[in-house]
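S1.2 Input.
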Amino acid sequence: MNRIVVVSDIHHACTAEQARRGYEERAAGGRVARVMLRAYRRFVWLDDPMAHNHRLPEIIRREPRPDVVVGNGDFCLDTAFVGVSDDAALASAGESLGLLRSAYGDRFMANAGDHEFGKKSFVGGAGGVRRLSLERCESKLGIPVVWSKACGRWHLVGVASSVADWPLFERETPEAERGWWRGRHEACLAGLAAAFDAVPPGAPILFFCHDPSALPRLRRLPAVAARLPDVRATVIGHLHTPLVLGVANRLAGCPTVGWLGNSVRRYTSALREARCWRDFRVTLCPSPAGIQLLKDGGYLTLEFDASRAEGLVVRMHRLPW
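S1.3 Output.
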């Protein structure tokens, strides 16, 4: 049996990012927003997002000899909200990627998440997408926009969700950079179509896409739509916990809300077309820490016989708090 380990939303914080404690509250603006954000962090999401660097080494210790390891995005904490265009976020991503590459060598495949590129803060509207972040992902971190790998009869395909779905982030992109990003978005979709076209007819596909918000746009690509019957699983990250995935499935089809800020607009835009997620056979890789409320973090494994086209076994492995 071939064994694939998937880790996602590591959110490693290097020394420079650790020095920015309180970064979300400073970006939030008013006192009421800061109090609400602090309560949300304390009781629901993560009380201290900088306290979980030890979890990635624990996963590596538990999984010494997998056939493939996929890092499914968000390697840094992104405390400046501009992705790895920020030197501190670049250092965080470099440290977490360094651990994975040192442990697994060429068995490791990196997929970019939204925090690698930047996005507006959850409250306060700080930051956004930056061209330099994508350039550094490719040149300094070695993270491609599209990648593929064969494992016997099975084929793994990955895409940087924020580039594939860049129109969702256009408002968060500096106006002077929008033409460049549009070109990279179109090239990304063309590259993904070519990757799907290159998979032999009928061969099983495992698809890796950090943010499921991109899936409706990818569903409209003829090359992707034609191969959906062959997609055995689409592994997403971004949501951190199965609880959020369950809520998203229940809210699928809700209208876009554009008057409550960028974060709500992004979320509701994704949910408006989320019914198509089932066509991709979505499965969530949680963050290593999960969320404060449930302490449900971990990682994912996928096992299959590389000589057969069926028989995928997906398991989530919990990590103790």
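S1.4 Remarks. The chain has one domain: 2-318.
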